[in-house]
Fold these 3 entries.
Entry 1:
Amino acid sequence: MQFIATFLQKHRETAVVGVLVLVSLTLLLLPEGPRFGLAQRVLNVLLLPVSRGTHFVDDYVEMRDENRRLKRIAATLMLENDRLRQYRDERDHMRRLAAFKEEQLFHLVPAEVIGRNLDRFQTILVIDRGSEAGVEERMPVLSYQGYVGRVHRVFANSSWVRLICSKNNPVSCIDKRSRVVGILEWRERRLFDLTSVSVVEDVQMGDTLLTSGFGGVVPKGFPVAVVTKVSAARDGVSLKIEARSEIPFRSLEEVFVMTDEVPWDRALLYDRGDTVIVDSILRGSQ
């Protein structure tokens, strides 16, 4: 074996030529069927490194381009976040000068729906978060689409949530566009009526209704429904306003319980370590 290795090392070119000649003669002497099969296997062995190298180069180029795009996106988001924080600081300063209440962020506890009540309206949800997770009665419950209800009863590891699509559970709402305030009352399925709105008020089809925050129980600014029809009521002094919620109450699987309000200075979405990482990304994208 040592002799063969030494010979191949000293006469590499001659050995390669000899192997190629031997393979060529073998292919010429074989019948046509086995000949093509052997030739295909030889080509596969010879071309496999080339194929792998080509795929590696293609993958490297694709990953490099994707990495550059992600760096640009991260840099853009970082700059946008800094600009939004500046606007927030300016707005908070103006609110303090006007003696307005300082706005807060919300601490949301995610919960899964593990049950529903048995009536045909399904107005009660059972979630897998209770007093051990800090949940208390009357706490607002939200979904990805907006406000869905309040905590009705609390147990150690579960709670009942009363949805807004139930009788005698009105919600004070404000028109996002015109800032008109009314009381949203459930009618059927995902349909609601906005009451207590004067005929001279400005409410139009397509307007989004948000929680008004009046009463201090339901937080302000969460979407509830969209106005679908506006007409004059029979009394002649108020509007008959119909609205539809975009929240799929009967198919909710995840909700969020708002357990606390967090000041802006304690609600940073990233820490110093993240800032260092983003700074390195910014330098790398230049």
Entry 2:
Amino acid sequence: MIDLSQMTVVVTGGSGFLGRNIITELFRHGCENVYSPRSRDCDLRIPYNVRRLVNYELPDIIIHAAAQAGGIGLNSDKPGELFYNNAIMGIQLMEQARLAGVKKYVQIGTVCEYPKFTPVPFREEDLWGGYPEETNAPYGLSKKMLLVQGQAYRKQYGFNVINLMPVNMYGPGDHFDLNTSHVIPALIRKISEAKMLNQPVIIWGDGSASREFLYVEDCAEAIVLATERYDGAEPVNIGVGSEITIKNLVRLIADLIGFTGTIIYDVLKPNGQPRRCLDTTRAFEKFGFKAKTTLEEGLIKTIKWYQETHDLVR
């Protein structure tokens, strides 16, 4: 087990939704030497920036949480950009970390790495059973290649890389841009604005697809626990182990917001992957993680934060 209080940790993406929560959790675990570069000052796609970051900060641990990601719309519109940016950032950072002798490298992957028709619940052993769901395959495969890189580096160089695969996250501090946001923030904004404007809500797909959602603070806890306690080559699912259909999720969010208007499902739009639900056994067995926040509890906190911080008419 690593004593984080004695470590210098670099968190990429530290100003982002997940990264901010990881940093908070690191502090809670006694880690005081945390550095997180801003993308405007340290574009990780540029090799010089990556070398400078690693060799100047001299971290003991790197948690690579920086990513370009979004919902079905962004994945459909910018597949090349998503593949290149996520792959090149991770490939360069892992290589420079290895060369600099970083003690541990934590790669944050994604549930999008799984094949489209993975048996439910998704087990880590099923990761190579087929091609990912088409709308997010370039993003998922870019992350999957970083898993391959980490395992290859462990085998050839003895470099301590671990790979964690969270499901869809949500919570206060998420971004609610309808062009780039994930499922829950997009639904919260759509339904909130529909209520205010007395308009119907239009939902992509037919609502039959299922998803699993993890409260962001729980995800951050899992990542820090794994950083402290896990040193294996095999990837680890990070989730809650239960799913909900999009139709039931829409109804739940509508009820919590108090929306009683019309909900329209646009069946000409894609559903995305048919089902997502993880087997979280390995995370509990290897580093004792079990999610604490129920979906309804997390939604109440997220909706409250959104209503307190956003002008609903944009």
Entry 3:
Amino acid sequence: MIKKLITTILIIISVFSFGQNELENSKIYVLNIKQEIGPASWRHTQKAFENANKLNSDLIIIHMNTYGGLVDAADSIRTKILNSKIPVYVFIDNNAASAGALISIACDSIYMRSGARIGAATVVTQDGSKAPDKYQAYMRATMRATAESKGADTIINGKDTIIKWFRDPLIAEAMVDESIVVTGIVDSTKILTFTTEEAIKNNYCEGKAESLKDLLSNLGYKDYEITKYEPDTIEQFIDFLINPIFHGLLIMLIVGGIYFELQTPGVGFPLAAAILAAILYFAPLYVEGMAENWEIIIFVFGIILIGLEVFVIPGFGIAGIVGISLAITGLTLSMVDNVVFDYGDISFTLKVLVKAFMTVIIALISSFVLSIYFSKKVLVGTMLNKYVLNKSQDIKDGYISSSISNKLTSKTGESLTDLRPSGKVMIEDEMFDAIAAYGYINKGEKIKVTKHESAQIYVVKIDD
């Protein structure tokens, strides 16, 4: 207690001696957190603190108004604040709920606007339901540790040693767990949330301010220079790309591009569009730490298998099915944050995975349906019309009707191209399309027509 009193006196003397000049020529750096806390907020925080250090700022103010967000992102921001060499204040403009409360408590000082609130830090799942107690326990411990980091006084009362915390850790825990009782503040049935006046009364707010200008004036700052963090164009573009709605559109473009490429082989533009969409899908997720290398590899390998099934392997079998499964798996897992609580809660994990999976499936189905519907409208009558197969199928070009193919049964001839399994054959000086009934038939080998089916003839290789 005596040590703290001496320290306080020295601080007061310092303020009177030197503080006036320092406050008159201060550099203030402002970071806005006015959205759902997530990877983007964490990325902005890192850059803002880096900029503040480069500018030799005297104070960082977080201008907050959020209902919360991802705990792992909030925990990263909390750690950044606790390790900052520059003092960090938070001005709660309206709300500092859930993850926002954790970030606020980590700051050196908390200031709130009239009517603002702080608290309600219970961990919830993505559908809004309360997460299992193992997650609440982790959040309670994190909130408590953050409150304890703000320091305490040790009071000797006879034989008893009393610790008086600057910010009561039990209050921080009560913001997470409704079963925690804080005498005179909250009973065991409510999650604790403070209004501005309640926060001031219980040492969870240093003062009231109606604006940043009002806050700095109350703190005694004069002739200060404010620098606000503004995301650059690349940052804004990344924020746009990681929007779940845009994810669905990119998946539709990937599938649509592949579909149109198969419909118009050799064009190249649809395939290029699909590749670009895949890059735009995975790149920001990779930067945000959500998409791992192995998830991207799974997707690429799946696409390769699909390509082999379509262009190399006859029919559609195991390779195609495995390829589609791997592609869907890669797209789904890339949308799921890998930095989560690893407590083995299967039900919680399934909820997250199902949501991502349904986003992918809905986008895939929508893309496939729209691709079929618009394929003719987009290709026919446009500059791509020359790539569309719209000529009449003449007999002289090798096209035959069912009646003609009937007459060809048991006829012999020669393969004009490799049949792997389809190709062209010459029968009685006429060229026909044919399919090898089994195996492959090389160019120039003798063939025999075995059957016709669906206006298509099937042939087998015969020995000379």
